[in-house]
Write a structure and sequence with these properties.
By secondary structure, this protein is mainly alpha-helical. It folds into 2 domains: 10-70, no CATH class; 76-145. It is built from 6 helices and 2 strands. The chain has a two-stranded parallel ribbon with strand order 1-2. It starts with 9 loop residues before the first strand and ends in a 12-residue tail after the last helix.
């Protein structure tokens, strides 16, 4: 076969609704995390190759949630990490941080990054410190590495 091979690049983006059916609150952060990392990366990648054409398809549930976030919606992860009262987290909020932000692969992520490992060690201390900078760093590390698959039982419950 000689000549060029026509190729169609189609990125189909989908996410289910992550809103609680009774409260309408976001219960999982995946739309926000994908939007700030993966979806943006795809668009930037195409900028590097202006002659490459691609189509993006997006299911309505994803579009609706992205629009909600653009209008200022948030989720529990954001609320916990953006609290302005330094060190004043409830036991439930601390457990939320342990469950959510350490629910990724420990060997591939947490133990390969000194800051992440240090945060986990601090959380396991008898009286862990939860200053605002700590919470922001933890959220940023999780957001940067969350696609790594979790090892079952690797997080604290």
């Amino acid at each position: 076969m000689k000549g060029k091979l026509p190729v169609a690049i189609i990125w189909h983006m989908h996410q289910p609704y992550y809103r609680h059916p009774q409260t309408s609150e976001f219960v999982l952060p995946w739309v926000r995390l994908h939007a700030s990392k993966d979806y943006l990366h795809m668009a930037r990648l195409l900028q590097e190759f202006p002659r490459v054409k691609a189509n993006f398809t997006m299911v309505p549930s994803l579009r609706d949630q992205l629009e909600d976030y653009a209008r200022g919606a948030d989720d529990e992860d954001t609320r916990v990490t953006m609290r302005t009262v330094d060190g004043d987290l409830t036991a439930e909020e601390k457990q939320h941080m342990l469950r959510r932000f350490f629910s990724i692969h420990h060997g591939n992520v947490i133990h390969r990054h000194e800051e992440y490992r240090r945060l986990l060690v601090d959380l396991l201390l008898p009286k862990p410190i939860f200053p605002l900078t700590f919470r922001l760093m933890l959220r940023q590390l999780f957001a940067a590495h969350y696609p790594e698959p979790a090892t079952p039982g690797a997080y604290i419950s």
